[in-house]
């Protein structure tokens, strides 16, 4: 799928036990007739009331949870995890049945959407499968259905599904909802920032990058370069390519981070190796200035092919300084180059 800027494709503290909590046995002697000594001589406790018999009824177990709570707990689980949890006992198996079914619909939805598993691409069937999965509580299906609605131009339906997933604690749903709020007219900036923080603390790298942008630009809250740089770096460490590039610039210019040309170069190269065209151009220029002509040509040619027009001029200047065999070898390296997999 063509890379898009947006949108991308759980907190109660209740404790439940499947076994009863038994009453602590009474160790008082049943043969003693003397009243227990007390500091208050005028207090007569009277005859002791025997404890009620132990109940054999267990405390509420997992299956007794309200469905919305159950969905919040189990919705983020993968199908293998759901199957494993379903093996615990019959009650758990019965309680998790809707979510197991949801994961099957999710799987079929992805097949229809991407043409996998021997089926042809069919967005109508994909949406129908995602909606069935969403109706059974899968937040992943909610997000995928929301994305299809968004791409169809049905933004309200898409936002409603993102909101459902976000409220159930899904970080991708929270991130998508936040971006929708930022793009709204007028923007719902306060709500967007709140959802971005939730998703960012949950480790969602795209949300971390979007939050860093808001902090960098002072959008919806005070401008803070140190905090923006911190979130850029966190997203970069999580594999988000755009954050790698911005982290490099922060180190290069000393914005929010202590200036370090070594770290700037490190993150620029990483972004370039992950396929960021501007980073490929910048890294190629750096290699050229260091005299490494062959590698410079490779990165500049990659940037040129990705649409960075300015890279073509510098590349042509360098090519004139290389032998025919070196030029041919550089082009072979470009043709066989593959970007590292990333979190986008």
Automatic annotation (TrEMBL):
<dbReference type="Pfam" id="PF08238">
    <property type="entry name" value="Sel1"/>
</dbReference>
<feature type="region of interest" description="Disordered">
    <location>
        <begin position="26"/>
        <end position="60"/>
    </location>
</feature>
<dbReference type="Pfam" id="PF12937">
    <property type="entry name" value="F-box-like"/>
</dbReference>
<feature type="domain" description="F-box">
    <location>
        <begin position="59"/>
        <end position="108"/>
    </location>
</feature>
<dbReference type="InterPro" id="IPR053301">
    <property type="entry name" value="F-box_motif"/>
</dbReference>
<dbReference type="InterPro" id="IPR006597">
    <property type="entry name" value="Sel1-like"/>
</dbReference>
<dbReference type="InterPro" id="IPR036047">
    <property type="entry name" value="F-box-like_dom_sf"/>
</dbReference>
<protein>
    <submittedName>
        <fullName>F-box family protein</fullName>
    </submittedName>
</protein>
<dbReference type="InterPro" id="IPR001810">
    <property type="entry name" value="F-box_dom"/>
</dbReference>
<dbReference type="InterPro" id="IPR011990">
    <property type="entry name" value="TPR-like_helical_dom_sf"/>
</dbReference>
């Amino acid at each position: 799928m063509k890379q898009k800027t947006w949108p991308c494709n759980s907190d109660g503290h209740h404790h439940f036990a499947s076994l009863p909590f038994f009453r602590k046995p009474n160790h008082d002697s049943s043969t003693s007739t003397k009243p227990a000594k007390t500091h208050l001589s005028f207090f007569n406790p009277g005859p002791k009331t025997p404890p009620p018999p132990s109940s054999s009824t267990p405390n509420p177990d997992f299956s007794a949870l309200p469905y919305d709570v159950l969905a919040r707990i189990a919705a983020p689980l993968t199908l293998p995890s759901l199957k494993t949890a379903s093996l615990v006992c019959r009650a758990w198996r019965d309680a998790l049945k809707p979510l197991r079914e949801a994961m099957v619909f999710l799987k079929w939805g992805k097949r229809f959407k991407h043409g996998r598993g021997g089926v042809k691409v069919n967005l109508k069937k994909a949406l129908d499968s995602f909606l069935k999965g969403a109706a059974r509580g899968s937040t992943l299906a909610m997000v995928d259905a929301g994305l299809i609605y968004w791409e169809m131009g049905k933004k309200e339906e898409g936002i409603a599904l993102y909101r459902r997933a976000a409220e159930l604690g899904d970080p991708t749903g929270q991130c998508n909802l936040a971006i929708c709020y930022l793009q709204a007219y007028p923007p719902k900036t306060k709500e967007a920032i709140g959802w971005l923080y939730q998703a960012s603390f949950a480790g969602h790298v795209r949300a971390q990058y979007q939050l860093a942008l808001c902090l960098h630009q002072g959008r919806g809250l005070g401008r803070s370069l140190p905090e923006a740089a911190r979130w850029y770096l966190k997203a970069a460490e999580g594999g988000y390519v755009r954050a790698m590039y911005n982290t490099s610039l922060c180190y290069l210019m000393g914005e929010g981070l202590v200036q370090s040309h070594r770290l700037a170069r490190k993150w620029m190269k990483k972004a370039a190796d992950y396929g960021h065209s501007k980073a490929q151009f910048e890294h190629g220029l750096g290699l050229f200035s260091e005299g490494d002509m062959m590698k410079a040509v490779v990165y500049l040619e990659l940037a040129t092919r990705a649409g960075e027009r300015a890279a073509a001029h510098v590349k042509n200047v360098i090519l004139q300084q290389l032998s025919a065999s070196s030029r041919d070898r550089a082009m072979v390296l470009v043709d066989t180059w593959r970007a590292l997999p990333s979190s986008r």
